[in-house]
Amino acid sequence: MKKLLIVKTGSTYDSIKKNHGDFEDMIIAASGITKEKFDVFDARDESLTFPLPDKYAGIIITGSHDMLTYNDDWMQDLKDWINTITDTDTPTLGICFGHQAMAEAFGGVVDYRDWGPEVGYVKVKFDAEAYNDELFSLLYDKCSVYQYHSQSVIELPRGATLLATNSIDPVQAIRYNSHMWSCQFHPEFNHEIVAHYINQNALHLTTEGLDPYELLMRLEPDQTGEKLLKQFIKICGL
Q1: Does pTM surpass 0.90?
Q2: What percent of the chain shows pLDDT beyond 90?
Q3: Is the dihedral of CA 12, 17, 23, 26 positive or negative?
Q4: Is 188 a catalytic residue?
């Protein structure tokens, strides 16, 4: 049986790793299946060759503390590789940085927003297109998700379908074709992880005009992200 591939594009803080592991560990924990069914490929290691997409049952591209506008060589290599997935039937999901990388790979534009980062437990609205979508149809018309990002998809790729939006970031989820999706929010996070991010970056958030205490008070336990990841795993046939 084929495995799932996690494409690692960054790492979380060491203090979070102690209790929750790195981004790939969070994804595995939320997916509901065992670690042995995953391979992890570090896209930042330019000594490695990207694997063939059709070798895997599915692909998940992680978030990162890096910004896509850094334009590092490995980021361009990642985007080039993403384009090779379109000719396969391999289900693919991009998360946060992975969402942005997929959007740029298909011709979209990513940059900082003028109004600063989107952080915390945030409502998103799923458009009518999501109701019949294989991945996102299980979510409510309006639901809350965990967010922590400073850059956004500011121009949708031509031919892509917008599935979710909100007043802070108009591009929250995208479908590119029958087997490739991405979301700006973090389905692998829980409220404890987001709280740690807020506390870790409290001074920076204050300078951005956000109130860390208010953000913390809004946090609630939520299984929306787990539901989404488990649905993706189901689509992958595992």
Answers
A1: yes
A2: 96
A3: negative
A4: yes
Q: Please state the rounded mean pLDDT for residues 104-116.
A: 93
Catalytic residue, from 24, 104, 118, 188: name it.
188
Query: pLDDT digits over 183-197, tens only?
Result: 999 999 999 999 999
For residue 46, indicate whether it is catalytic: no
* DSSP letter, residue 48: S
Query: Which of the following is catalytic: 20, 99, 179, 186?
Result: 186
186 carries an active-site annotation: yes
Please tell me whether residue 89 adopts helix, strand or coil conformation: coil
What pLDDT is attached to residue 129?
Answer: 93
Angstrom CA distances, 154 to 99, 168, 236, stand at: 12, 12, 29
Out of 20, 96, 104, 118, pick the active-site residue. 96
As a 3-state breakdown, the chain gives helix, strand, coil percent values, each rounded to 5, of 35, 25, 40
Instruction: Please state the φ and ψ torsions of residue 102, each to the nearest 5 degrees.
Output: -65, -40
CA 146 from chain center: how many Å? 10
Cα 74 off chain centre by: 18
